[in-house]
Amino acid sequence: MYDPKFIEKLEKELSLNPKAYQSKVTMLALLGNLYIVFGIVVLLVLLFLACLSILVLKAFAIKIIIPVAIFLYIIIRSLWVSIEKPQGIEISKHDAPQLFLIIDDLSQKLNSPNFHHVLITEDFNAAVVQRAKLGILGWYENYLIIGLPMLQSLTVEQLTSVLAHEFGHLSKNHARTANWIYRQRIRWVQLYMLIEQNSSKIDIIFRPFFKRFVPYFTAYSFPIARANEYEADKISVDLTSVETVAETLSTVNVIGCYLSEEFWPKIFNRTEDLPNPNIAPYLGYVQQLSEYIQTDTTSHWLEKSLSLRTDFEDTHPSLSDRLRAIGQPAKVVFAEQGNTADSLLGQRLTEITAVFDHKWQTEVLEEWQQQYQDIQQQKEYLVQINEKLAQNFELSLEEKFDQVDLTDRIMHQPAVAFQLMEKLYQEQQDHPLANFMYGRYLINQKNASAVAVLEKAMQLHEFNTLRCCELLYQYYNEQDDQLQAEKYQQLFEARTELEYNAMKERESISAKDQFIAHELSQDQVDDLLAQLREFSNIKKVFLVRKQTSFLSHIPCYVLAFSIKQGFGKISEDAVIQTMRFLHEKVQFPGETFLMSLDLQQNSKIKRKMSQLVSAKII
Questions:
Q1: CA nearest neighbour of 97 among 118, 122, 124
Q2: DSSP H or E run through 132
Q3: What is the pLDDT of residues 296-325, one digit of tens each?
Q4: Residues 272, 596: Cα–Cα separation, whole Å
Q5: 153/162 Cα distance (integer angstroms)
Q6: Which of 228, 256, 257, 246 is nearest to 322 (CA)?
Q7: DSSP 252-292
Q8: Gyration radius of the chain over CA positions
Q9: Are 158 and 344 a contacting pair, CB within 8 Å?
Q10: Cα 51 from chain centre
Q11: DSSP 135
């Protein structure tokens, strides 16, 4: 996540002088490429000089050449990483002549590179991908990727609008410098990820550079990448029409909501009665979409999409900003059945649909069967709860919450569940979960009293904040009360940032961290010790708290252990196995980070912990 203030500053700089800013980022990209070339040249020169030295130093030179050659080989290999080929079903001009006419026409008008491969995937998406066969050394292969659901959802005109936008990123006629920077940004990120995955411990020339340069370059190129999205929309307008682009942007966002909130959930709800996924989602998609289209729901999804703001997580602007940039209102136009762009696939449509359906059935089979079994067990559990109640036995608090949840979620009886929840809330008005669940029911009924209940849920438990703010934001947004909606949007964003920062500082432990006493009661320590003594191979244990800056009232414990040593060095496998057993068997007093004192890299941390009087508990 980028620093919003820093990106805003860069965006302002770009708007004041676009040419100067582009020149600065272009120079930055060229310097990055130059460093890689320079590093390789230096290594080659060293190897060459080592070879020449054989004439003078003879046998000693060979001793120098071997490690230099090995080092050079490892460095080159770390850079000679090939980006994985995009996956999908490849189609040719023979298979889909009308689609390729559109592709060729757009490529010619925009002077964009030819595509070596056109792939159909099962995603609701379209993209252009340039794959470097030789990693940083280039040799690019161009892929056009079109998702079958995208073809099934849009008209040919709308699909052309989408493709024009994607081709715009490769255009040599429009915003050539910005497009080059846009592509450089993607390549640097891809290479950084690949080199991190394939890095060697002695790769000291390029890894430190990548770790510093890539975040710096991606931040500075962020405003250009975002501006490039607007430019690609403008290109799409020029090649289709402003009305078509507005329709496409609006419709794609609404269909995205339909897929995530209606289509796929409805399919996975079938796990309640089908032990196996004997469903063909792609085959029935077009008909289901045409049958489902409802004005009220469509309006809700459009409003939801329009309410989203442009953020700094993604270079893509929000729907409302993109529509504003082309001067058009939102307008959803669904393709009529029989008039969808999947017809462009010709006779291959049936085959591709069948392949994706079979692939989906295979991929979800295990999860589906497990979900089916879980639901049957939950139904049985609910029967037991209701029988217990019928026999005048008192339910535990946990059983009461489960009864509400299962009656609604598994039995699909929301009215009965609400009555149960209303009664439970009257009994437990100071319980965080009771307030949240009851407030959620009320707000779904558009009941204004939900506000106070959800506010109380946040006061009783701070980790209710995100889900309560989301519900309250949606409620006030639907009520057209922008002031209150803004309030909860800001609370949501502030809490998200706080939890994100808290999570990041709890992800790892290093020698730079400060540690303080664990502050557990003696009873808590005794309980932990009783569990740890079950592990006969553990020799020594330190328990401390990491000093944190965010959510510091929630302890982040660090339990460092040493295991008994037999003959030889303690193996890494033994350490990993002990960690796994500790995670599975021990009930820790809170969030606890496990680490081994037997690993050399933790020696500095061990010395720090040793300085705390109460740290050593075994």
A1: 118
A2: strand 126-132
A3: 788 889 988 998 888 777 788 899 999 999
A4: 45
A5: 12
A6: 246
A7: HHHHHHHIIIIIHHHHHGGGGT-SS----HHHHHHHHHHHH
A8: 30
A9: no
A10: 49
A11: G
CB atoms within 10 A of CB 290: 14
Instruction: Work out whether strand 117-121 and strand 140-147 pair parallel, antiparallel, or are unpaired.
Output: parallel
Band (214; pLDDT cuts 50, 70, 90): confident
Q: Which helix (H) or strand (E) holds 477?
A: helix 465-478
- Reported as type and span, the H/E element at residue 454 is helix 450-460
Apex 550 CA angle, 606 and 494, nearest 5 = 155
Helix (H) or strand (E) holding 386: helix 348-390
Contact in structure between 216 and 126 (CB atoms under 8 Å): no
Q: What mean pLDDT do residues 352-381 have?
A: 95
How many Cβ atoms sit within 10 Å of the Cβ of residue 108?
A: 10
Question: Which residue type, as a one-letter code, is found at position 107?
Answer: S
Is residue 249 within 8 Å of residue 185, measured between CB atoms?
Answer: no
Query: Which residues touch 494 (CB under 8 Å, ≥6 apart)?
Result: none
Report the 10 Å Cβ neighbour count for 5. Answer: 9
Note the pLDDT tens digit of each residue in 83-126: 678 899 999 999 999 999 999 999 999 888 888 899 999 999 99
- 616 DSSP 8-state letter: B
What's the number of CA atoms in the CB half-sphere (13 Å) around residue 30? 7
As a whole number of angstroms, the distance between CA 116 and CA 96 comes to 15
Looking at residue 371, what is its pLDDT?
94
- CA dist 509 and 602 (Å) reads 9
To the nearest 10°, report the CA torsion of 38, 43, 46, 51.
-130
- Concatenated DSSP letters of 526-591: HHHHHHHTT-TTEEEEEEEEE--SSSTTS--EEEEEEE---SSPPPHHHHHHHHHHHHHH---SSS
For the beta sheet containing 140-147, the strands, ordered from the edge strand earlier in sequence to the opposite edge, are: 89-91, 117-121, 140-147, 126-132
- Show the tokens assigned to 181: 């920077």
Chain position carrying tokens 């990820």 = 193
Among 237, 263, 260, 223, CA closest to 162 = 237
Within 8 A by CB and 6+ apart from 373, the residues are none
Could you tell me which of 253, 181, 220, 242 has the C-alpha nearest to residue 3?
220
Q: pLDDT tens digits, residue range 318-347?
A: 999 999 999 999 999 998 888 899 999 999
Supply the pLDDT for residue 245.
95
C-alpha to C-alpha distance for 579 and 599, rounded to whole angstroms: 13
Produce one character per residue of 524-551: b if its CB has 16 or more CB atoms within 10 Å, e if not: eeeebeeebeebeebeebbbbbbebeeb
What is the model's pTM? 0.74
Confidence band (pLDDT; 50, 70, 90) for 201? very low
What percent of the chain has a predicted confidence (pLDDT) above 90? 52
Task: Please give the DSSP secondary-structure letter assigned to residue 506.
Answer: T
- CA-based nearest residue to 585, from 525, 531, 528, 530: 531
